[in-house]
Specification:
By secondary structure, this protein is of the alpha/beta class. It has five helices and eight strands. It has a five-stranded mixed beta sheet with strand order 2-1-5-8-7, with helices on both faces. α1 packs across α3. It is globular, with a radius of gyration of 15 Å.
Length: 163
Protein backbone atom coordinates (compact mmCIF):
# COMPACT_ATOMS: atom_id res chain seq x y z
CA UNK A 1 0.00 0.00 0.00
CA UNK A 2 1.23 3.51 -0.82
CA UNK A 3 0.46 6.71 1.04
CA UNK A 4 0.35 9.85 -1.07
CA UNK A 5 1.08 13.21 0.53
CA UNK A 6 0.81 16.47 -1.37
CA UNK A 7 2.00 19.95 -0.63
CA UNK A 8 -0.91 22.26 0.20
CA UNK A 9 -2.43 23.59 -3.01
CA UNK A 10 -1.60 20.54 -5.15
CA UNK A 11 -4.17 18.00 -6.29
CA UNK A 12 -2.84 15.01 -8.19
CA UNK A 13 -4.36 12.23 -6.10
CA UNK A 14 -6.89 11.03 -8.71
CA UNK A 15 -4.27 10.87 -11.44
CA UNK A 16 -1.71 9.05 -9.30
CA UNK A 17 -4.29 6.67 -7.81
CA UNK A 18 -5.57 5.76 -11.28
CA UNK A 19 -2.14 5.11 -12.75
CA UNK A 20 -0.77 3.14 -9.81
CA UNK A 21 -3.93 1.07 -9.58
CA UNK A 22 -3.90 0.20 -13.31
CA UNK A 23 -0.16 -0.35 -13.75
CA UNK A 24 0.74 -2.02 -10.46
CA UNK A 25 -2.52 -2.89 -8.71
CA UNK A 26 -1.18 -0.72 -5.88
CA UNK A 27 -3.76 0.72 -3.49
CA UNK A 28 -3.24 4.37 -2.54
CA UNK A 29 -4.20 6.14 0.68
CA UNK A 30 -4.34 9.91 0.30
CA UNK A 31 -2.84 11.64 3.30
CA UNK A 32 -3.30 15.17 4.55
CA UNK A 33 -1.80 18.14 2.75
CA UNK A 34 1.39 19.54 4.22
CA UNK A 35 3.47 22.72 4.25
CA UNK A 36 7.10 22.70 3.20
CA UNK A 37 9.33 22.98 6.29
CA UNK A 38 11.22 26.28 6.00
CA UNK A 39 14.37 24.78 7.53
CA UNK A 40 14.85 22.73 4.34
CA UNK A 41 15.36 25.89 2.23
CA UNK A 42 18.91 26.80 1.26
CA UNK A 43 19.02 30.59 0.66
CA UNK A 44 22.44 30.35 -1.03
CA UNK A 45 20.95 28.17 -3.76
CA UNK A 46 17.35 29.44 -3.55
CA UNK A 47 16.31 25.79 -3.53
CA UNK A 48 15.16 23.14 -1.08
CA UNK A 49 17.49 20.35 0.00
CA UNK A 50 15.65 17.16 -1.00
CA UNK A 51 17.43 14.97 1.54
CA UNK A 52 16.56 17.33 4.40
CA UNK A 53 13.01 17.62 3.08
CA UNK A 54 12.54 13.85 3.21
CA UNK A 55 13.97 13.77 6.74
CA UNK A 56 11.62 16.56 7.85
CA UNK A 57 8.56 14.94 6.30
CA UNK A 58 9.36 11.44 7.57
CA UNK A 59 7.77 12.22 10.94
CA UNK A 60 4.27 12.41 9.43
CA UNK A 61 4.10 8.95 7.85
CA UNK A 62 0.98 6.79 8.01
CA UNK A 63 2.08 3.48 9.55
CA UNK A 64 -0.47 1.56 7.44
CA UNK A 65 1.60 2.08 4.29
CA UNK A 66 4.68 0.27 3.06
CA UNK A 67 5.65 3.11 0.72
CA UNK A 68 5.27 6.87 0.94
CA UNK A 69 5.17 9.40 -1.90
CA UNK A 70 5.45 13.15 -1.39
CA UNK A 71 4.60 15.58 -4.21
CA UNK A 72 5.93 19.13 -3.91
CA UNK A 73 6.03 22.28 -6.03
CA UNK A 74 9.39 23.67 -4.97
CA UNK A 75 12.78 23.50 -6.67
CA UNK A 76 14.79 20.67 -5.08
CA UNK A 77 18.42 19.62 -5.20
CA UNK A 78 21.01 17.33 -3.72
CA UNK A 79 24.62 18.49 -3.28
CA UNK A 80 25.85 16.66 -6.39
CA UNK A 81 23.29 18.24 -8.76
CA UNK A 82 22.10 21.72 -9.74
CA UNK A 83 18.54 20.39 -9.45
CA UNK A 84 16.68 17.10 -9.32
CA UNK A 85 13.17 16.08 -10.26
CA UNK A 86 12.82 13.50 -7.51
CA UNK A 87 14.60 11.50 -4.86
CA UNK A 88 14.03 8.14 -3.19
CA UNK A 89 15.13 7.14 0.28
CA UNK A 90 15.10 3.35 0.19
CA UNK A 91 15.73 2.94 3.93
CA UNK A 92 12.69 5.01 4.86
CA UNK A 93 10.59 3.85 1.85
CA UNK A 94 9.95 7.48 0.91
CA UNK A 95 9.88 8.97 -2.58
CA UNK A 96 9.81 12.70 -3.26
CA UNK A 97 8.83 14.22 -6.63
CA UNK A 98 8.84 17.92 -7.46
CA UNK A 99 6.63 19.37 -10.18
CA UNK A 100 8.51 22.69 -10.09
CA UNK A 101 10.46 22.05 -13.30
CA UNK A 102 8.06 19.45 -14.70
CA UNK A 103 5.32 22.06 -15.08
CA UNK A 104 7.28 24.21 -17.53
CA UNK A 105 6.10 24.06 -21.13
CA UNK A 106 3.09 21.80 -20.59
CA UNK A 107 2.98 18.00 -20.33
CA UNK A 108 2.94 18.15 -16.52
CA UNK A 109 0.71 15.13 -15.91
CA UNK A 110 2.68 12.89 -18.28
CA UNK A 111 5.99 14.00 -16.76
CA UNK A 112 4.71 13.61 -13.22
CA UNK A 113 3.61 10.03 -13.84
CA UNK A 114 7.00 9.12 -15.29
CA UNK A 115 8.86 10.60 -12.34
CA UNK A 116 6.52 8.99 -9.79
CA UNK A 117 7.02 5.56 -11.39
CA UNK A 118 10.78 6.20 -11.61
CA UNK A 119 11.11 7.05 -7.91
CA UNK A 120 8.88 4.13 -6.90
CA UNK A 121 11.14 1.91 -9.02
CA UNK A 122 14.01 2.98 -6.78
CA UNK A 123 11.96 2.16 -3.68
CA UNK A 124 11.32 -1.28 -5.18
CA UNK A 125 15.05 -1.87 -5.63
CA UNK A 126 15.78 -0.71 -9.17
CA UNK A 127 18.73 1.45 -10.16
CA UNK A 128 19.07 3.75 -13.15
CA UNK A 129 18.80 2.08 -16.55
CA UNK A 130 20.95 2.82 -19.60
CA UNK A 131 18.03 2.40 -22.01
CA UNK A 132 16.75 5.91 -22.79
CA UNK A 133 13.18 4.68 -23.36
CA UNK A 134 12.94 2.99 -19.93
CA UNK A 135 11.20 4.85 -17.11
CA UNK A 136 14.27 4.10 -14.95
CA UNK A 137 16.54 6.12 -17.26
CA UNK A 138 18.13 9.01 -15.34
CA UNK A 139 16.55 12.35 -16.27
CA UNK A 140 19.28 14.96 -16.28
CA UNK A 141 16.82 17.37 -17.92
CA UNK A 142 13.08 17.65 -18.39
CA UNK A 143 13.71 16.78 -22.05
CA UNK A 144 15.05 13.40 -20.85
CA UNK A 145 11.79 12.84 -19.00
CA UNK A 146 9.84 13.76 -22.13
CA UNK A 147 11.87 11.29 -24.19
CA UNK A 148 11.64 8.27 -21.91
CA UNK A 149 8.57 6.10 -21.60
CA UNK A 150 6.36 5.49 -18.60
CA UNK A 151 7.04 1.74 -18.54
CA UNK A 152 9.93 -0.39 -17.36
CA UNK A 153 12.06 -1.95 -20.08
CA UNK A 154 12.16 -5.75 -20.23
CA UNK A 155 15.39 -5.97 -18.20
CA UNK A 156 14.03 -3.73 -15.41
CA UNK A 157 10.73 -5.62 -15.42
CA UNK A 158 12.64 -8.90 -14.94
CA UNK A 159 14.60 -7.38 -12.06
CA UNK A 160 11.35 -6.26 -10.42
CA UNK A 161 9.91 -9.76 -10.69
CA UNK A 162 12.97 -11.16 -8.83
CA UNK A 163 12.71 -8.63 -6.00
Amino acid sequence: MLCLYQQAGLEFSELIEEVLSKKFNLPVIVGEKFQIPENTFNPLRAQYDATNLIEALAGSLNKKCSYHLFIVDVDIYTPRFNFILGLANTQKHIALVSIHRLSRGGLLKNRLIKEVIHELGHLWGLEHCTRSYCVMYFSNTVADTDHKGSDFCEACRRKLERI
